[in-house]
Amino acid sequence: MTTVSPGRIPDLDTPALLLDIRKVQRNASTMVQRCQDMGVSLRPHMKTHKTIEAGEIMTNGTKRHIVVSTLAEAEFYAGAGFDDVLFATPLTQDKVQRCARLVTQLEQFHVMIDSSAGLDAIKSTPLSGKQWSVFLKVDCGYGRAGVSHDSVEGVELVRSVVSTPGVQFAGLYAHCGDSYHSDSPQEVKAVGHRTAQNILTFAARLKQEGIECPTVSIGSTPTCSQPADSMGQLTEVHPGNYIFYDVQQSLLGSCTLEDIAVQVMTRVIGHYPGKNHMLVDCGWTALSLHSFGQLPTGFGIIDGHPELKLSSMTQEVGKVHAVEGTLDFDKYPIGTVLKILPYHACATACMHPRYYVHSGEDIVAVWEPCRGW
């Protein structure tokens, strides 16, 4: 939801999350064009930003064909007129009633399973006048969740889905989470290729069994930002982080630092020459601890100040040292504004109740994200 703008960036209290609207729009249009060039459908993931406005931008205004990671997100987007929503977390019995309401409310709402328990949850709640639409979560090498791509059990589970009255098999879905462990763009492409080949082979096995697979979907921002040629054989891809990007993505080759649309604005609040550090009003509740401070510049990159290191954080404050030598305190008077490029935009965005959207120094909107589960 957009709320009234406060004016200009210097007027903001800190810490504050800043979004560069031009970069957001450029990142979205670049991914749309990339998918068109590959000949695959884009089903963008909403989990990074969890806002109506970014969802509209990522779907090019259609408000259709999205992925969410929580039912709070699903209900949030459904209430704002979005449709064709995939809840991409394995379904359990405690969530089936909320899902049933969404199936009834929307033209298309899809759930995901990776076990017979998930199918049993669906069977426990038959629908009147509608069918359950079910994706199968597939493990293509990441190892977090899903049926193994080469397992007999996976084929058997799909067979059970298609034989269940009131249930429609929607397709296969895999996350390329192992791309985040890559050391080079070549490794990222190799993960994308391997994941695509594994899930396509699974779909071919289903076809041999007489089971059509309407959708074959894989995704992660690294693999979709530098896609392998074989990904063009898929039906769709489902990246999400690309709308903001972050330092982690730049290290993986997904983007440059110039593509990162999100910053955390903070101010210098204390000088401690005897300890050779200054304090800023950005702690882990404004940035997250995701990088564990392992970057040469600490927990993030202080934009325009390669000489500075965000070396540690407690709940509401952070310590800043010089990367090398003694800190020149005269360059950073108390009240000085610093802007931090986050290591992981998803984790950082989750820390903020509103995002200040700017064009240049002007705040053009304030976006309020969905929260909760």
Overview of the structural elements:
With 373 residues, this protein is α/β, with parallel strands linked by helices. It has 2 domains: 82-239, Alpha-Beta Barrel (TIM Barrel), CATH 3.20.20.10; 257-367, D-serine dehydratase-like domain (Lyase, Ornithine Decarboxylase, Chain A, domain 1), CATH 2.40.37. Helix content is 29%, strand content 27%. It contains 11 helices and 19 strands. The chain has helices spanning 21-38, 52-58, 71-79, 96-105, 116-123, 152-162, 185-208, 221-225, 247-252, 284-287, 345-349, and strands at 2-3, 16-20, 41-42, 64-68, 83-90, 109-113, 132-139, 147-148, 167-175, 215-219, 236-237, 262-272, 277-280, 300-302, 308-313, 318-322, 337-342, 355-359, 362-367. Helix 8 (221-225) links the parallel strand 10 (215-219) and strand 11 (236-237). The relative contact order is 0.16.
